[in-house]
Amino acid sequence: MRNDIWSVYILLLADNTYYTGITNDIIRRLKLHEIGKGSKYVRARLPLVLKYVEEVGSLSEAARRERVIKRLKHTQKKKLIEKLRKKEKDMTFPIEPILDRIIIKKDEMKEESGFHVPDTVKGRSKTGTVVAAGPGRINVETGKYIPLAVKAGDKVLLKEFDGHRLDWEGETYYVFTESEIIGKLCE
Hints:
InterPro entries: Chaperonin_GroES, Chaperonin_GroES_sf, GIY-YIG_endonuc, GIY-YIG_endonuc_sf, GroES-like_sf, UPF0213_domain
Order of helices and strands: EEHHEHHEEEEEEEE
CATH topology of the largest domain: GIY-YIG endonuclease
GO molecular function, one term: protein folding chaperone
Family: Belongs to the GroES chaperonin family.
Keywords: Chaperone
CATH architecture of the largest domain: 3-Layer(aba) Sandwich
Protein name: GIY-YIG domain-containing protein
Largest sheet: 6 strands, antiparallel
Number of domains: 2
């Protein structure tokens, strides 16, 4: 959707170079780049990964910021991106679940010997870490929320990872309802 808010963005390309551009519709612009209808520079270096987006307001502000970023050396652009990533990691998960839904990141499973247990092993319990949780179920009699028994940061036990899969920022998460969780792990 086009709007009056302009953004500067940085893409990491297949040849490990950065491309800096501006847009007032980041989703549309990324789709154009991905199908080879963006810049010639990007087209010759697909695939791409969006690494940085900064909302700046007007077209003239975006053009000024783009010029500044384009003058940066590769290492300086990398530091700018890392600074943004650190700031993002300090923030909460960007999706706030509704009702009794819970977003979980699967923990690596290891046997006592230290070997990883493959995901194809069926019938075994899996552990995960809650990254975000909704407010709870609604009590139909009172209309108030019944709070969830888990919160962000809790380790939980699940029978299988059959929840809805959600891929974000190169990580895989799963969405469950509270009733699908076997229990909370106490450490």
